[in-house]
Specification:
heterodimer, A: Four Helix Bundle (Hemerythrin (Met), subunit A), about 0% strand, B: mainly alpha, about 65% helix, globular, disordered N terminus
């Protein structure tokens, strides 16, 4: 593979992410990794459902009283929007418009960071209420499930930033196109997981 | 690239293995370290049998016995059986599909080093305050109460090595999906490749629940979480579910590649096409599928209720059907064949009755009411040793003999091989057959001793003698390896003379690029077809001789894995709370790992090319070693 090969939108392949053998392998391998991640989160969700509202006798916290939807709804909207902006970035990647891609990635990162900030605020709020990690089985299951998602967001953000900085000067080629594609795919996965968290943890939690 | 081989110095050889991304060398690494752990696990087994040799023995204390027993199971499953099978998958599978390497050579190396450092970490527990002692299943109710750091060694060590295995699984899946040579359709893949494929899919879906369970255990023990602490609302059954959702597929992760190895052996040494190839493939897939639906048969006595027990009992019995299909296909492959009784073949023939015996007791335990009688008795011990030793270990020994020439270019002695076989086979049945009856007589598993008035003395003594036989068999195998290596008589492409698949069409050991030209596959048993048609070269080519692209070696996988190894020590001692060094060590370790990950991500690694001239030169007998 020649890193110095210059592409124009005309010579740019239709599917730059799978234009090389390495790209094809990464594409399939990453989908498989997402399958493993799905099982990981399934285990966490199952545990959360089993331990929801469970704690020492006389525990004062229950999901129905603890969660407040407005903040979580805002977080959901922000994360969903960031998924949309990453789609825009990939649209420009496929059209070999590097600058526009970088710009939309930047928007994605900012939205993701906002989400993460709000999540930290939310956790901090609960801890100050007395709902710490060691409080009960419920708190452990809640923080582990939502926190694992948060760790994924953090990893995704770092990945975005590393790629953007590394390739800032050299533009798109078939070597780095799969990398951009995969991080966007990862971001969508994180988003889907959050949709389930919003539904299972927060909405079903508030219903009681 | 330094393409002309010099006599390599020892240091250069070590460096070569540390940095290699070649699947054949990684196979050597897996085989060596897996073999080492197999010996350690074997010594632990001998200690168990010495302790149980007679009533009221005091060779091991109760506490030490628990540690030895736990480490025997854990080592054998995670650090011996699986890595050795991964060694054969690495050595053979890419050759069987006509690929030059696996899809992710770098990850292949990373997978190995994660397993290696995880295994070392786990075994260091012996020297650092005591090994884990809650059994290989590490049930939460026992594990949470265990003192010292043994359980923490277990959870952290298995987490690290589990990541390695998961990475290997993904790698093999992608390799088989994307890297097959032209003409190698799914239904022309050799059975060993098929079983590698299905076992890798099981790894992919079964390891995450284990990792999550281990995380919960770490959080409970170290950070005061309450997943399994009943007083704070936790539930210990969650561990059992997560463990067995992993644990049951795990036994198929072990046995399916073993089935694949035996399928190859039956066809080769019966000199016949595999009977019912299609049925074998679909039986493999079905076993993999059902493997995820039976985990609760390990938990019949937990009290999940009659409905749950009935469902899982039925699902368990159903698995016997595709397994039976396989047994009959193997028998019919032998039937009417022109059989050669080589060492691999006698292992394969011995495997059938041994494994069937294990399968039959498995179906007995699937009957939930009967399982209430058998549960936690020596009957269970006998059952799983019949399937694991009678299936997996026999396959490992058979494959060691079968693929040794392909991996190292020299044949193990057939004579010594057969001596190993007889000692091991007789010893195996002597040890475990009688344990069925010990179980029925009421001897519970995992007890460190028993009384003279319980009537278990004689059978336990016989069992211990059997273990000695097995140990002699293994020692003879080791002698065989040493003698063979010293003699070093080189062999050609097809040392068994009846090879059927692509790996036998190329030199032993193969050049580091495997195939100078990618082969063209015209049917099942590719090499056999070409041989029968008198093709002297053994294969057809799908491309002219041209430049080959190869991946660069890298030291980063070792460093990345070492970082986690270091971090684990920090995590382990962190919550003792009385030391100041664990936190910096934890952070340092994670920095090493994530730093090297970042380095890998930022540094372009495009691999290198072997020119056409070098390939021609190499074919004439020049030697390229592939190191950079």
């Amino acid at each position: 593979m020649d890193l110095n090969k210059r592409y124009t939108p005309q010579t740019w392949p239709d599917h730059p992410e799978t234009a090389t053998m390495e790209g094809k392998n990464k594409f399939v391998g990453f989908w498989l990794l997402l399958a493993a991640e799905t099982v990981t989160f399934a285990s966490l969700f199952a545990t959360y459902l089993a331990l929801k509202d469970k704690g020492p006798s006389g525990m004062e916290f229950a999901a129905a009283d603890l969660f407040e939807l407005p903040l979580v709804f805002a977080m959901t909207m922000i994360l969903l929007t960031s998924s949309l902006t990453s789609v825009y970035a990939m649209y420009h990647m496929k059209n070999h418009n590097f600058k526009a891609m970088q710009a939309w990635l930047m928007v994605t990162v900012l939205l993701g960071a906002t989400f993460l900030g709000l999540e930290i605020y939310e956790f901090n709020h609960y801890v100050h209420l007395g709902f710490g990690y060691t409080h009960s089985a419920f708190s452990a299951a809640f923080y582990t499930l939502v926190g694992t998602h948060g760790a994924h967001v953090l990893f995704g953000l770092s990945w975005f930033i590393a790629l953007m900085l590394r390739n800032a000067k050299r533009g798109l080629n078939t070597y780095n196109a799969p990398k951009f594609y995969l991080v966007a795919l990862y971001w969508h996965f994180i988003d889907v997981v959050w949709v389930f968290i919003f539904t299972v943890v927060y909405l079903m939690g508030v219903i009681g | 690239m330094s393409s002309i081989a010099q006599k390599q110095g020892f240091g250069a050889m070590i460096w070569d293995y540390l940095t290699t991304v070649d699947h054949k060398k990684i196979a050597h690494l897996y085989l060596t370290s897996g073999g080492l752990f197999f010996l350690i696990g074997g010594i632990e087994a001998m200690l168990i049998r010495i302790q149980l040799m007679k009533a009221g023995n005091d060779f091991l204390s109760a506490g030490t016995y628990n540690e030895v027993l736990t480490m025997h199971g854990t080592t054998m499953i995670f650090l011996a059986a699986m890595p050795i099978l991964l060694a054969f998958m690495n050595a053979v599978m890419p050759l069987q599909i006509g690929a030059r390497d696996v899809a992710f050579p770098f990850l292949n190396s990373l997978g190995f080093w994660l397993f290696f450092f995880g295994g070392i970490f786990l075994n260091l527990s012996w020297f650092m305050g005591g090994a884990p002692d809650a059994g290989w299943t590490n049930y939460a109710s026992l594990a949470l109460a265990s003192e010292g750091h043994g359980i923490d060694f277990y959870t952290l060590g298995l987490t690290i090595s589990g990541f390695g295995t998961l990475i290997s699984g993904i790698n093999f899946l992608v390799t088989i999906i994307n890297m097959r040579a032209p003409g190698m359709t799914y239904m022309r893949m050799p059975l060993f490749t098929w079983t590698t494929f299905v076992a890798s899919a099981l790894i992919l879906l079964a390891f995450p629940p284990l990792t999550i369970g281990l995380f919960f255990m770490v959080f409970d023990r170290m950070f005061g979480a309450n997943f399994f602490d009943v007083a704070n609302g936790g539930n210990t059954i969650i561990w059992e579910h997560l463990f067995w959702i992993f644990g049951h597929p795990e036994v198929y992760i072990l046995i399916l590649p073993a089935f694949g190895i035996f399928s190859e052996i039956f066809a080769i040494f019966s000199r016949k096409r595999l009977f019912g190839y299609t049925a074998l493939v679909f039986a493999t897939i079905l076993i993999g599928f059902y493997g995820f639906m039976v985990w609760a048969h390990h938990m019949f006595t937990v009290g999940l209720g009659a409905t749950a027990n009935a469902v899982f009992a039925l699902a368990t019995m159903i698995i016997a059907v595709p397994t039976g299909v396989k047994i009959f296909n193997w028998l019919l492959t032998i039937w009417g064949g022109s059989i050669k009784f080589t060492t691999p073949m006698i292992y394969a023939i011995a495997f059938i009755p041994s494994f069937v015996a294990g399968g039959v007791t498995g179906v007995m335990q699937a009957i939930a009411p009967l399982d209430y009688q058998l549960h936690d008795s020596y009957f269970i011990v006998a059952h799983f040793h019949y399937v694991i030793v009678g299936g997996v270990v026999l396959a490992i020994f058979a494959a060691t003999h079968l693929y040794w020439p392909k991996m190292f270019g020299t044949m193990l002695s057939e004579k010594l091989g057969k001596i190993t076989f007889w000692f091991f086979f007789i010893g195996f049945h002597l040890t475990f057959f009688i344990q069925h009856f010990l179980g029925l007589m009421g001897m519970p598993r995992r007890v460190y001793t028993f009384g003279a008035d319980q009537g278990w003395d004689l059978f336990n003594a016989i069992s211990s003698v059997g273990a000695l036989f097995m140990a002699i068999g293994v020692i003879v195998l080791l002698i065989n390896v040493v003698i063979t290596t010293v003699k070093n008589e080189r062999v050609g492409n097809d040392p068994w003379e009846d090879g059927r698949t692509l790996e036998w069409a190329i030199p032993s050991p193969p050049p580091f690029y495997n195939f100078a030209q990618t082969p063209l596959v015209r049917g099942l048993d590719t090499y056999w077809i070409e041989k029968m048609e008198g093709n002297k070269e053994g294969m057809l080519y799908a491309e002219p001789l041209e430049e080959i692209h190869m991946p660069n070696g890298s030291i980063i996988p070792v460093i990345m894995s070492f970082g986690l190894f270091v971090a684990s020590f920090g995590a382990l001692y962190f919550l003792d709370g009385d030391k100041s060094w664990p936190l910096p060590v934890l952070i340092l370790g994670l920095l090493i790992t994530f730093g090297s990950m970042l380095l890998r991500s930022l540094k372009d690694d495009l691999g290198f090319h072997i020119s056409k001239e070098e390939l021609i030169e190499d074919a004439k007998g020049g030697k390229m070693d592939g190191s950079k």
